[in-house]
Amino acid sequence: MKDQHVVYKAQGVCSQQIVFDLVDGYVHNVQFIGGCRGNTQGVAALAEGFKAEELVRRLKGIQCRGSNSCPNQLALALEQAMAE
Amino acid sequence: MREQCSMQVPDFSRVQLSPRVLTHEVSDEEIFRQPLAKATMIVPAQGGAQDGDFVRIHLCGADREMQLVLGSGIAPEMEAALQGTAAGMQIETCGEALAVLSVKRKIVPQLGDALIAALNIPGVATADAYRHMYINENRDSMLSMVLLRLNAGIMAQLKKDVVPDEAEVQKRYEISRANILKRQGGEEGYIHQLIDILSLPENATLSQCDEGLLSICRERMVETTLGQALAARDGKEWNDTTRREHLNLLAKLHDSTPEQVMTWACDMALMDGYYNDYLANCIEAYFKPKVNIMVNGEVM
Q: Which of residues 16-55 of A touch B (CB under 8 A)?
């Protein structure tokens, strides 16, 4: 898994982008651009220092608009980054 | 096909829209976020660990590994103790022995023409050219955002004049209620969903949930009535074609398909955001506001 600074274009949710660092499989400095301010800041704060796999396990499938949500988009962004 | 709406058109002359020329500022931080991310590197740190560095440690007592960003404030005492350390060092803090496994640093490149040239985008060799490209590619979505904000203010003024058709409100309420009951598998699921949507107390009763759903349906009917009135005022007939136009607009706004929007719309009462988008379109058509996209004080 490559160390990287990621800007992910979110799809179908209120946030437009999700920015984070993935270093040695750990997730840091998560930032949602757009979306509900308090909720996304909360998710970002709680995600700090977690292993990416663990975050994906916890966040993937969370629903808000239809079957999608900002946390779900973070999970997808992490999966994509981990695959690189 | 639905008939053209016949309700009274609100008096738009009363609505204050000031200024008609709106401004949307776009920062370089937003414009260059993607290229800067592509060129950012995370590398082993030279010298001792400092604020912003990623320090991976082994907690000897707990036999557990973790990684901290120094200065993040997650574990202030530990972060302070790790300042200046390097991979291979062992320290003791908070009564715990720690081994520093690695220290990495994020290197963010300088924004400038060289950074953009390195991206090899055909026809885009300078930072200024990249700014123009970014604005052109994102102009539609920026305008949508501005109009949505404008819409909220205008809509609040217009709504005061609208009296919804109570028979239609009741019809929508019954359809929505039946849909939710069916989807949630009965009254218990229905109550649970309404508590969630309306932020009702955990012990809310069935009748409180029904009342809440009815009020959402009334609110949505006000918006629909208003939207139809605006469409009529603009010389548009509310029919399958105009309905399709609005669906296409919503799909575009949400990077989705008209079919998906239809699925979302099946519970009209729960459509919080989507009718606002639809109304933004109507309001834009009626008021025709002008939006200037500004970057570093210049209109682009």
A: 17, 19, 21, 23-24, 26, 28-29, 33, 48-49
Residue recorded with tokens 């929007």 = B261
A-chain residues near B37 (CB < 8 A): 5-7, 19
User: Confidence class of residue B18 from pLDDT cuts 50, 70 and 90?
Assistant: low
CB B58 within 8 A of CB B99: yes
Rounded Cα gap, residues B267 and B277, in angstroms: 16
Q: How many CB pairs under 8 A join A and B?
A: 59
| Straight-line distance from the first to the last Cα atom of chain B, in angstroms, rounded to the nearest whole number | 43
B56 at interface of A, judged by CB pairs closer than 8 A:
yes
Alpha-carbon span B114 to A38, nearest angstrom: 37
> d(Cα A20, Cα B193) in Å, to the nearest integer?
33
**CA of residue B33 relative to chain centroid, distance:** 18
Residue B248 Cα distances to B241, B244, B256, angstroms: 11, 6, 9
- Mean pLDDT, residues A15-43: 94
B104, β-bridge pairs = B44, B54
Contacts of B74 in chain A (CB under 8 A): 48-49
Residue A82 — pLDDT band, cuts 50, 70, 90? very high
